[in-house]
Amino acid sequence: MAEAGLQADVVVVGLGPGGEDAAGRLAQAGLDVVGIDGALVGGECPYWGCVPSKMMIRAANLLAEARRVPGMAGRSTVEPDWSVVARRIRQEATDDWDDKVAVERLEDKGVRFIRGWGRIDGPGRVVVGAQVVEATRAILLNPGTEPWAPPIPGLAGLPYWTNHQAIETEVVPGSLLVLGGGAIGLELGQVFARFGTEVTIVEAADRLLALEEPESSVLIESVLTREGLSVVTEADITGARHGAHGFTLELVDGGVSAEQLLVATGRRSDLTALGVGSIGLDEKARSISVDGRLRAAPGVWAIGDVTGEGAFTHVSMYQSAIAVSDILGHPTAEADYHALPRVTFTDPEIGSVGMSEASARKVGLSVRTGFTDIATSTRGWIHKAGNEGFIKLVEDTGRGVLVGATSAGPVGGEVLGLLALAVHAEVPTATLRRMIYAYPTFHRAVEAALNDLGS
Ligand SMILES: Cc1cc2nc3c(=O)[nH]c(=O)nc-3n(C[C@H](O)[C@H](O)[C@H](O)COP(=O)(O)OP(=O)(O)OC[C@H]3O[C@@H](n4cnc5c(N)ncnc54)[C@H](O)[C@@H]3O)c2cc1C
């Protein structure tokens, strides 16, 4: 039976990047805040997501660059050693998956921290284990998502990897099936391949990175296959099994096997476990609907992946700032995602912002596009090995502004900054054309793509 209990102005359930940030800010603003997390304070990003995966990518990219030395700068011998990467992740990124420092940081800001799984139990009430916490002003939900696996016969219960095991691994497998050709699957697949794993990507859609521009899919498939990864698209998977020799995914037209299987087919929130039905929200929904100020129900705010507005740390943090202002009663601009940037950190990086050409046409905009190849730009030509990429611009001709853009290539995610600003601030393309672009940078290719738009 639940103990009667604790009272606070605000109860934050789930302390991912946004929840941790919000709890700290609200406490520093003078509110009495209780923060609850069943796992590690900071959430997925620092322990099993962005940070350690980018450390892996940094290491794998160093190997790729070293392998590009012949024909460019002499000779190179490359001896990959995963133990260095595993150690860096354990020691520098995750403190051996220990959040002591994060908890102290939170408590130093005045947050009362409870380790446990919180469940809403009616308006203003959260239950954690035997404890009831009453929220007098707000409940802020930031529970994130869990890896989701498709209902493939035989798959449930197999000892496959999610991102957790892939990030924690001390050894690279000899061979790896990656189920899912989205950002996480491709990033991790390319890393392991560069460390010597034989990698097969298996994707049910007709192309990799199915949410991105088709040109991105073509580019990344050609780079990955040239690096030796196998790619199966339009995979009709009829079953999965695991035995002494590893994993097999049965396909209608054959099967693929490997020592290890990484399932990277998306993520979902368990809203039933969170108890949102007790405050009138749909427990069966994929996400919690929020308004522009991140309000989900009277006295309840939600931020992060659970809102379905973009599963990125920068979205969680952006939403945190708005929700905090709203909870404090300060005036705040409403959340606006028209210039949401996202980067797939493969090599080449694929950054995009706003709408794709297809989504812009779908909402009825009159669209024209501009395209340029990075490899044939001056900087791309100088760069040579590893210079694949492109810039694609999507213009709303009615308003003469960019509504979307893709920047793929070396440092594609950095070049994206310029395009994200253009989409965000709705800078007229006429103004972008009058800008001076430094020679010979990668971002100078934006000018060529603008020229391709036509005048
Ligand atoms: C491999 C990988 C790579 C990624 N790379 C990037 C990247 O490069 N850039 C980027 O922007 N994003 C990246 N992401 C996504 C990013 O990690 C998330 O978008 C980010 O963590 C924000 O999530 P969140 O704030 O919703 O909460 P999460 O980080 O998911 O944290 C939620 C927290 O809530 C806790 N929790 C859940 N339910 C309860 C409950 N009932 N009670 C108490 N606690 C609860 C969990 O234990 C967890 O600590 C990556 C993700 C993965 C998996």
Helices, strands, pairings?
Blueprint: E1 3-13, H1 17-28, E2 33-37, H2 44-48, H3 50-67, H4 82-93, H5 100-108, E3 112-115, E4 118-120, E5 125-128, E6 131-141, E7 146-147, H6 163-168, E8 175-179, H7 183-194, E9 198-202, H8 214-226, E10 230-232, E11 237-243, E12 246-251, E13 254-258, E14 260-263, E15 267-268, H9 271-274, E16 295-297, E17 300-302, H10 313-327, E18 341-344, E19 349-354, H11 357-362, E20 367-373, H12 378-383, E21 390-396, E22 401-409, H13 412-424, H14 429-433, H15 445-453
Parallel strand pairs: 1-2, 1-6, 2-3, 6-17, 8-9, 8-14, 9-10
Antiparallel strand pairs: 4-5, 5-6, 7-15, 11-12, 12-13, 16-17, 18-19, 19-22, 20-21, 21-22
Bound molecules: flavin-adenine dinucleotide (FAD).
Brief write-up:
Helices cover 32% and strands 25% of the residues.
Mean pLDDT figure: 97
CATH superfamily of the largest domain: FAD/NAD(P)-binding domain
Number of helices: 15
- Binned strand content: 25-35%
> Which residues sit in consecutive blocks of at least 5 with pLDDT less than 50?
none
Report the structural category.
alpha/beta
Could you say what the CATH architecture of the largest domain is?
3-Layer(bba) Sandwich
Describe the structure.
This protein has 455 residues and is α/β, with parallel strands linked by helices. The protein has 3 domains: 3-42 and 99-145 and 269-327, FAD/NAD(P)-binding domain (3-Layer(bba) Sandwich); 163-265, FAD/NAD(P)-binding domain (3-Layer(bba) Sandwich), CATH 3.50.50; 341-453, FAD/NAD-linked reductase, C-terminal dimerisation domain (Enolase-like, domain 1, 2-Layer Sandwich), CATH 3.30.390.30. It is 32% helix and 25% strand. It has helices spanning 17-28, 44-48, 50-67, 82-93, 100-108, 163-168, 183-194, 214-226, 271-274, 313-327, 357-362, 378-383, 412-424, 429-433, 445-453, and strands spanning 3-13, 33-37, 112-115, 118-120, 125-128, 131-141, 146-147, 175-179, 198-202, 230-232, 237-243, 246-251, 254-258, 260-263, 267-268, 295-297, 300-302, 341-344, 349-354, 367-373, 390-396, 401-409. The strands form 5 sheets. Strands 1, 2, 3, 4, 5, 6, 16 and 17 form an 8-stranded mixed β-sheet that branches. Strands 18-19-22-21-20 form a 5-stranded antiparallel β-sheet. α1 links the parallel β1 (3-13) and β2 (33-37). The radius of gyration is 23 Å and the shape is globular. The model has no long low-confidence stretch (mean pLDDT 97). It binds flavin-adenine dinucleotide (FAD). Residues 13-18, 36-40, 43-45, 49-50, 53, 117-118, 142-145, 163, 184, 274, 304-306, 311-314, 316, 345 line the site of flavin-adenine dinucleotide (FAD).
